[in-house]
Amino acid sequence: MRSAVSIPSNIAEGDERGTNKDSLRFLQIARGSLAELETQLSIAEDLGIIPQPVVVQIATQLDEVARLLGGTIKMRKAREEGGR
Fold this sequence. Notes:
Elements: H1 2-16, H2 20-46, H3 52-82
Helix pairs in contact: 1-2, 2-3
């Protein structure tokens, strides 16, 4: 599941770009990777690869990541709008 690695990698890459606009772009890419990972988790559950209790645990963690990522995107958007 490369998307699991892609999430923090995109956050780090965007942060290193040095501009709020670039950071925001990479945060949105990370959010897409998070959605991809959620889909992969669902497929793995449907195929019986990951047991349901583990899926619930991972899904809870993904919800927290989504919440934090959403808050960071919101903050960056406000910064972008204020910087214009």
